[in-house]
Amino acid sequence: NAGVTQTPKFRILKIGQSMTLQCAQDMNHNYMYWYRQDPGMGLKLIYYSVGAGITDKGEVPNGYNVSRSTTEDFPLRLELAAPSQTSVYFCASSYSDLGGYEQYFGPGTRLTVT
Amino acid sequence: AQSVTQPDIHITVSEGASLELRCNYSYGATPYLFWYVQSPGQGLQLLLKYFSGDTLVQGIKGFEAEFKRSQSSFNLRKPSVHWSDAAEYFCAVGAGGSYIPTFGRGTSLIVHP
Fold this sequence. Notes:
By secondary structure, chain A is mainly β.
């Protein structure tokens, strides 16, 4: 299993540009998440999904959009990029069972907006 | 809503010394508790988790953690630290049935040779 994969690894955007961060998992997990990580701030939840066709906002959703048309894929769309969106973005997935829902993380995408 | 505090931003230890990283949580019922490790330039990896049963939990890489309900704590320990343990450590707390854990701000572990 590849686990959780993210592309691209690095990206530089100009202010006002748009892009899509790709995330895929091959573990048949129903839950998927997008986080951003800023130095000293831990992880902030942007959006999450409990299954195909179902998404919901997290703590910091402004400036982002998501979709989940399949169990495997959960892309994150940035519209009109701003310097405040410079961050490292992590995608994660988890399963639901009585044993506790540990999360599996991708390697991250480092985004710089200038 | 749940919350989690990691009081120490940085911890410095010598290789071979013991380690304890602190984590305090706030939640009304029995929480799900996790410790994750993040090596530089990498994603997070689960070290261990607690959701019920024995309050002393063993994890990977020689780590363990103890759930203390009376102190609302879930501290991470390792008896002898290796240079490769240098990383960022995150504690997370979740409510049963929610599947949306809350992460602490992380503790950066520096290991001196």
